[in-house]
Every structure is written in structure tokens, then in C-alpha cells.
Amino acid sequence: MIGKAYAFFDCKAEIEEIREHLPKITDGWSHKAFGLELILDELKAFLIKDELDSDLLRYVNESEICSIGGSEKGDLVKLSSLKYVIEAHYANETNEETGNILEMVMNGVYMRFGKNKPFYVDVVFG
Question: What is the pLDDT of residues 88-120, one digit of tens each?
């Protein structure tokens, strides 16, 4: 069994900055030793993958979220308009547990890149 979860998010950082910082967020976590894998991608590239689940695609295209920080707090945006996605795979765990771990990762991303700026994030599992 491999748990799966997705974090759709938008922030001012470039993808390489985020990619460089992800290992620092999880450094020292026992989860990494037990098969936690994080795959960062641009959302536009992710959405055109052939193997993408149709329910997930529909969710991304139909959902709206509001920011959790900055001056635009409360403004709704389409989930499909966000920049990035992190796909998490977690060996021998449920989708829900994988989602919980991914929420912790996204808290680290927010603390590094989103404080005092508009930051949009939605973590889903299923």
C-alpha cells in the first residue's frame, strides 16, 4: 500500500527555491526513512499527465480557495490557477496519513515562503 496526497499551492517563490528548501523542511523526520516521497511540479505540467485521475482533475478545475496570509486574505481563486503541486507518496500508509504529513510539509513551505504574503494552499487525499 502506498498513500497518496496532493498539495496545490501558490506563492511568490520560484520552483527551484522551493525544491531546494523541501529537504530542509523534512530533515530529521522519521517519515523520510520510511518511504515519504515528495514530487514538486508546476501545476500546468501536472494537469496534462495521462495518468491523472479524472476525479482529481475535476476537483482542481471546479474548486476555489482563499489565501491564508497577506493583504489579499479572503480573496477566492480557482485552484486550477495556482502555480505548483506537490504529490506525496508514503509507503505503507493511508492516503489520510499521507495528507496529514503533507500538511506539515506545507506548513514549512508557508513559514519559509508565505508569511506576510498571500499564500494559497489546498491539500487533498482520497
Answer: 999 999 999 999 999 999 999 999 988 777 789
For residues 13-49, b (16+ Cβ closer than 10 Å) or e, as one string?
beeeebeeebeebbeeeebeeeebebebeebeebeee
0.85 exceeded by the pTM?
Answer: yes
- Classified as helix, coil or strand, 54 is helix
Give the containing element (helix H, strand E) for 26: helix 15-26
Rg, the chain, Cα only: 14
Cα separations (Å) of 84 from 45, 64, 93, 94, 106?
A: 9, 15, 24, 23, 12
